[in-house]
């Protein structure tokens, strides 16, 4: 999804729980910036800076810190599918007029189109 977003002209920030993926995200995938979700100071500094988040994590993880990164009128899209329910804080969504949605990977046709596009 990084390459696709970059191809559409988006500024991409990769968010990871550990700094180990930073070099790969910046050098290989050409992300514009990198943010460690466990770095409280960095997360607070980035609050309200993102127009949208594509969350690909399939494990249970806290949503509130990620919602705080969004500007008002922004979207948080779940692409990962955790086995257990996630806690979704409603108040930050209401106050920031943020949209939370989900999407699956699509069918065979969409997957083939994406692979051709990314090649």
UniProtKB/TrEMBL annotation:
**Cofactors named for this entry:** Zn(2+)
Gene3D superfamilies in the cross-refs: NAD(P)-binding Rossmann-like Domain (3.40.50.720)
Domain Alcohol dehydrogenase-like C-terminal intervals: 2-118
Per its UniProt entry, which superkingdom is the organism in? Answer: Eukaryota
Per UniProt, the keywords (alphabetical) are:
Metal-binding, Oxidoreductase, Zinc
In its UniProt record, a GO molecular function of this protein is: oxidoreductase activity, acting on the CH-OH group of donors, NAD or NADP as acceptor
Which PANTHER family does the annotation name? Answer: ALDEHYDE REDUCTASE
- What is the name of this protein? Putative heteroyohimbine synthase
> Which organism is this entry from?
Uncaria tomentosa
Question: Lineage, please?
Answer: Eukaryota, Viridiplantae, Streptophyta, Embryophyta, Tracheophyta
């Amino acid at each position: 999804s990084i390459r696709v977003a970059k191809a559409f002209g988006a500024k991409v920030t990769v968010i990871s729980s550990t700094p180990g993926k930073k070099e790969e995200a910046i050098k290989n995938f050409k992300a514009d910036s990198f943010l460690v979700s466990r770095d409280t100071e960095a997360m607070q500094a980035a609050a309200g800076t993102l127009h949208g988040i594509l969350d690909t994590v399939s494990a249970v993880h806290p949503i509130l810190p990620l919602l705080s990164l969004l500007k008002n009128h922004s979207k948080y899209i779940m692409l990962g599918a955790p086995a257990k329910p996630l806690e979704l804080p409603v108040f930050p969504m209401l106050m920031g007029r943020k949209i939370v949605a989900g999407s699956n990977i699509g069918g065979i046709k969409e997957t083939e189109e994406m692979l051709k596009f990314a090649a």
